[in-house]
Amino acid sequence: MFLKGMTMYQLVKILMAIGSCVSIGFGIWHFFVPKAWNWYSYIDARATELIVAIRAINVFFSLSLVLFGMLNLLFVYGGKANRYSIIVMLAATSILWLTRLVFQILYPQGTINPLLQYGMLSAFIIVNLCYLISLWIVASQKIAN
Question: How far apart are CA 128 and CA 126, in angstroms?
């Protein structure tokens, strides 16, 4: 079995690495999404404030994904973070990804292509599980008095 001989801490490190790398990847990719998908062609060119707002939101979102991914990696691999800080970071990251998952279920993106729609859904589920399982493991650890 894959988990045989693996400690819970090692499992958390692996799951957080997967979730964080995917978060960073989505963040970097999202910097290029507006141009790749020609977002602004769908907006009236006279709506300059809307174009500026969408650009700002996308940059903020993309940078947030990259930073959350990097911080999670630093917290779990840096050896300087305590249990509380890891729980707080995992909780925040889990809430963000859970929100994205719920939106993909209720208001799916990529409906033009079922492979894209369900590929996104699958990715969001996997990333969410990586973070939620890690959060559960870290939060359920017994603390020595």
Answer: 5
Closest CA to 135 of 61, 63, 75: 75
Residue % of the chain over a pLDDT of 70: 95
Classify residue 74 as exposed, middle or buried by CB count within 10 Å of its CB (0-12, 13-18, 19+).
middle
pTM: 0.90
Residue with tokens 């939060």: 139
Radius of gyration of the chain from its Cα atoms, rounded to whole angstroms: 18
Report which of 140, 97, 127, 134 is spatially closest to residue 13, judged by C-alpha positions. 134
Separation CA 143–CA 67 (nearest Å): 29
Residue numbers of the domain that contains 90: 8-139
- 3-state percent breakdown (helix, strand, coil) of the chain, nearest 5: 80, 0, 20
Number of domains in the chain: 1
